């Protein structure tokens, strides 16, 4: 049996299943393939280039403007991360819309999600559109009756308002289909996969690093949501195609590989978020591109054309 090799992972932008109206609009999950000694050397080099008195060196330090050159080194070709690191990006709004549109169980669901992502705000107005997204997100988050959330009636009242506001638009037609699916909402909520982007991100890390059929073992920064039950589910899921051989949680202070993954995840999220919101730094975006997973969940064509990995070409973003 092939011995699994180990990758270390950390994330940035995690807010659980709250995808709309949170503090971040992008989720980034970084995975690295370095041994402990190489990771420790990397941390020390970053400290030398961007000094900080902090005991545990976190990504917030290297993201400061005064340490920009250190960040460029970390992402650049002379860094130990070059060829040994990977980032899976998730545009939270597109991810949420894609999950919601699964209610229709339609073969064109990805195309419809793209239509709503591109045209929803313009068609219905930002206030009404964002209010709908937040309410639907709340409804899906409380599918097991936890927390206040939004009621089915209140959410579908918003859908009714939107479908009537622009009945002849493409976005309005999709909202009408959602309205007609009201009778399916209870069964949909019961079978809906988690809205937390962390879980598909871990699966994708195993898929990416196990491309040659190798089993992958993941060392991850501690997460309260990664219970043993959830870990077992991740290992068993068919999406990982048997490549996730193990997952153990480690205190980042005890493993420099996790710290390096954090150093990559934080800037990656910020760079991608800036690009998505038309505030991108062309040099930093270009440095990030080689690390980005071609199957990241991304709805915006313009920013994706700049973020997509150059060596593997553009691939239609897939929802995990």
TrEMBL record:
Pfam families: DUF3800 (PF12686). InterPro entries: DUF3800. This is DUF3800 domain-containing protein. It comes from Nonomuraea guangzhouensis.
